[in-house]
Design goal:
This protein has 144 residues and is α/β, with parallel strands linked by helices. The chain has a single domain, classed as Glutaredoxin, CATH 3.40.30.10. The chain is built from 5 helices and 6 strands. Strand 5 and strand 6 form a beta hairpin. Helix 2 packs across helix 5. The termini are far apart.
């Protein structure tokens, strides 16, 4: 990404609709610029999802940054980190409301990842950081 991208904001209902209607195998990675483990894993997510491009896999980075950081600080951070993936900002402030709507096991910690392949009726939630080798295995399951 050479220029700062436009980052749309979504409410949880809009995000859930995106998850439920995605026609491609999609990885939704929930992160924030202030979360060290999140920032650490995004480069290997981008690299490995790119390796599955022929299978149509998409990566969407769902920012949980603070409202004061939207959109300029998030876009500037993503540009500085050389993120290439689509980023959306989740315009929600109460994790007790939106987290269980993504997955009932989500306690609000990040990073977390949701993998969806609606054509296969595949939905898998990971309530922890995914090491790169595990990510590759999970991407294979997503696309088999």
């Amino acid at each position: 990404m050479t220029e700062a991208q436009s980052i749309p904001k979504m409410k949880i209902g809009e995000l859930l609709k995106m998850v439920d209607t995605s026609s491609a195998p999609t990885v939704f990675n929930f992160w924030a610029s202030w979360c060290g483990p999140c920032v650490h894993e995004i480069p290997w997510f981008e690299k490995q999802v790119a390796a599955f491009k022929s299978k149509g896999v998409k990566l969407i980075l769902v920012s949980l940054d603070f409202p004061d950081d939207y959109p300029k600080a998030i876009a500037a951070f993503a540009q500085k980190q050389h993120y290439h993936s689509s980023i959306i900002w989740l315009d929600e402030q109460d994790p007790n409301v939106f987290c269980p709507m993504i997955d009932k096991s989500w306690d609000g910690t990040i990073p977390v990842t949701l993998m969806v392949n609606n054509k296969k009726h595949y939905r898998q939630f990971f309530n922890h950081q995914l090491p790169e080798t595990r990510l590759v295995l999970e991407l294979k399951k997503l696309t088999e």
